[in-house]
Amino acid sequence: MKYGQLGNSGLIVSKLAFGAMTFGSGNIPSVYKVGQDQAQKLVDLALDAGINFFDTADGYADGQSEEILGRLLGARRKETVIATKVGFRVDTGLVQAGLSRKHLFSACEASLARLNTDYIDLYIVHKTDPFTPLEETLEALGDLVRQGKVRYIGYSNWPAWMAAHAVQMQRERKWATFINGQMYYSLVGRDIEHDTVPFMKASGVGLTVWSPLAGGFLSGKYTRDNLSDPNNRLSGFDFFPHDKEWGFTVLDTIRDIAQNHGATPAQVSFAWLLTQPHVCSVLVGSSKVSQLEDNLKASELQLTTEEIAALEQLTRPAPLYPNWFTDMTLDSQVAEALK
């Protein structure tokens, strides 16, 4: 297992992280489907493979994911990094959701109890909250850090402009600063390269990746023929908006590369992400031991320069304005002189 720092912090995390979203049972049976016995096997396998970074959220299976993960890490909790998230609705009360000071404080206490820990290593705001002033959210997060209940803070699914504004405000007011942005990123979903990745590079915020297989699409088990099968996961849990026909064209290339290495499409998809210098860690979510074993092998897969270039060219997102204008008007004479 390889390791690195999370953003501009001293927090050392494994390049592959374990995502515990599948732990528990609930209203999305295609996602929440792993009981404690199976979860124990998955956590043990992850630890044995050198994974020290575990991710969950209070909204996963009504908190069951946190409970199971906290119970299973047990005595090894101190050698691991636990990230959990807050923001989605956890009960029926109006104030039992969002990023208000009230909810952040109560949600943090509840997560600490479910995880059976005195502190959360990385506390992530799970989504934006248009009903709460940004200043209120950021000050409350800073207070949780000062109180020792949280060590580091991050965000997930925020637009680049909001994250940039937040980091500027945190630095100006000497509040705890985001070290991490957890974002969706895959070979069929590279939208964050437009603005989020440049912001992260400039600010020192570290990128962790959720759903690196686009909800399982890049695992290779789906075809043009079985995609609409009502029994598969994507039929019941597919909110990734990529064009599926184009996605299958990408998969054809991924399968060719996988065959060259005696690997699987999932391993190639993970391996490509691990070649990206702006990626700190990639979440691996599994419901089966065989699936996790397969995905873990991605850390050993070395793609060739030609293979990386082929995937890059095939999946590169079309530039958006003003990015294309910036590229088009670059002074070539100065660029050449500074090579």
UniProtKB/TrEMBL annotation:
Domain NADP-dependent oxidoreductase stretches: 15-314
Pfam families in alphabetical order: Aldo_ket_red
Organism taxonomic ancestry: Bacteria, Bacillati, Bacillota, Bacilli, Bacillales
Organism: Paenibacillus gyeongsangnamensis
Protein name as annotated: Aldo/keto reductase
